[in-house]
Each structure stands twice: as C-alpha cells, then as structure tokens.
Amino acid sequence: MNQRPLGRSDLSVSRIGLGCVTFGREIDEKTSFEIMDYATSQGINLFDTAGSYGGGESERIIGRWLRDRGCRDRIVLQSKLKPRYTREHIRASLEESLARLAVDHIDVYMLHEFDSLTPLEETMHALTLSIRSGKIGVAGCSNFTIEQMQTARTIENHNAPFRFEVVQPMYNLVARQIEADLLPYCRENRIGVTSYSPLGAGFLTGKYSRDTNMVSRGSRFDVVPGHRDIYFTPTNFSILEGLKLLSAQVGIPTSRLALGWVLRNEDVDSVLVGGTSVAHIQNALEALQSELDPKLITKLDELSARID
Predict the structure, then answer these.
(1) Dist. CA 165–CA 186, nearest whole Å
(2) pTM score > 0.85 for this model?
(3) Helix (H, G, I), strand (E, B) or coil at 191
C-alpha cells in the first residue's frame, strides 16, 4: 500500500490506518493479534489507540504484539490522552502509555478533546518538553475545532509558535462539517489529517433502523450509547435510507460506498478503520482498491449534502 507524508513531519502513513479502539473492549487479544497481523501484511502501518481505550487494554495488547512480532520500526504509533492537560497529567499519562505499549517513544501523541479548564500555555509547554525529550515525535489533537487549533498556534512556546502537526477529526457521509474550514486550513498549513469513523461507528453499514430501541447487544451503539446522540437523527436516517437505495441500485454494499466516498478525499492523509474481525479490514482494503465511478461520488455528495 502506498504511503504519504504526514503533514510536515518525517512520518509516512498508509492510506488506511488501523483503529484499535475495539482491542480489549469488544474483542480479545487473540482476535486483536489476528487483525494486526493481517493489517501489517497488507501494508497498513498507522496504528491508532488511546490510554482510555478499554481502560488501557488496547495499548497493552498492542505492546504485547509489538514485542512478540519485533516490528516496532515498521509501525507509526498514534495515541491520545484525556483532559485535564496540566503539565503533571500529561507527563504521567505519557509515561503510563509508554509503559503499556512497552516502547520508548510514541510517534504521534494527541490531545483527545479540547480542555477549557487548563491554560493552553501550560499544555503546549508540556508537549514541547515531551517532544524535546524524544518521548513523542509530534503532537496532535483530536476533535478540535479550527478556532481551537488557531488559538493554540498563537501561543509563543520557547520563542516559537506551537503547532499541532496532526489532527484527527470525525469524517463520514453524515459528518461532513470539516470540509468547510478544517480541511482547507490543514491543507494550507501542511497539517496531517488522520480521520476516524468513516462508517459512523457502524451506522452507515445499514444495520440500524429508525427504531432506535433495536440495538444489538455488543454492537458499538450498545457498548458506547453516546453514539446514538450523534447519529440517530431524522436527517441521518434519511441519508442512510438514500444510501441503502443507491447500494441496491448499483450492487455495491453500503459500507463499501461509504468508505470509498471518504477515501476519495485527498485532503485526508489516512482513514482510520477499526473493527471486530479481519473481514472489516478486508472490506476497507477492497474499498480502497475499487475506485468509485465519479458519477457515484456525485450522487453520494448530493445525497449527503445538508444544512447544519
């Protein structure tokens, strides 16, 4: 699989990245190992995790896999920490993640969401110290607005403006808000983009209906009920129904259409794909290898156009 540079960093990442949120939560270590083995055999080199995933178990499983396979130098590790982003919390969280992953550095270390309670100056200073110590390669942020990124960039840190080198936003057919400002900003400023949730946590696979009480036990919307507030809206269900109709007309699964639509956006460096089996990764690779007809892309654009 071809790789592309991640912003201004010296990192190169595969077009599809492996989202490891299910490790130790929905799936066990054996299945997680199978998925990582398959992903790397197909050229996927970006692994995304977080200290909070599975109570830290996702990082532990990745750490054990890295030790067993001896392939740390082939993997771009991306992890995240939750607020608050005080100097001490960042230092402690980073050390805990390094220990769970059993590595001496994390390539991309991200703030999981914006923290309005901690001065940004303190956060940026702590991240800069971690970069200078060699414990992280570059700093990034997830779920930040463009205004929050711009605010961080105005902070003078060691006589130079601090910048996030990578951003991780949600992006899919029913969550296109980043097209208006965040993606153009990142393109203009050479900031890497590793988007997540291309299938809307499974919403765009077509297995959910307007009867929101009918959620399968063990599914993502059962394990993380908060996803229902994001995706179970009348507008989103209208888009989903249109997607299912188009899928039937062209004979391409809804998930393949939704993934193909995200992958066509050249402003996204790597699309994070997770799952509970190797088949989910295979589906993403097939979507990457089977380019959608431009007319289909136009229909998907029109179908998912919305006013927020």
Answers:
(1) 9
(2) yes
(3) coil
Residue 221 lies in a domain: no
Is residue 70 included in any domain, yes or no? yes
Instruction: With H, G, I as helix, E, B as strand and everything else as coil, classify residue 125.
Output: helix
Per the structure, the count of domains in the chain is: 1
Backbone angles phi, psi at 219, to 5 degrees: -75, 165
User: Which tens digit of pLDDT belongs to each residue from 20-63?
Assistant: 999 999 999 999 999 999 999 999 999 999 999 999 999 999 99
pLDDT tens digits along 244-291:
999 999 999 999 999 999 999 999 999 999 999 999 999 999 999 998
Q: For the chain, give the longest Cα–Cα distance.
A: 58
Closest among 252, 289, 249, 271 to 200, alpha carbons compared:
271
Give the position of tokens 């989910």: 280
Residue 307 lies in a domain: no
β-pairing, 46-48 vs 270-273, is unpaired
Phi, psi of 196, rounded to the nearest 5 degrees: -125, 165
Within-domain flag for 150 = yes
Domain that holds residue 190: 3-202+265-291
Q: How many CB atoms lie within 10 A of CB 285?
A: 19
The CATH number of whichever domain residue 74 belongs to comes to 3.20.20.100
Phi, psi of 259, rounded to the nearest 5 degrees: -65, -45
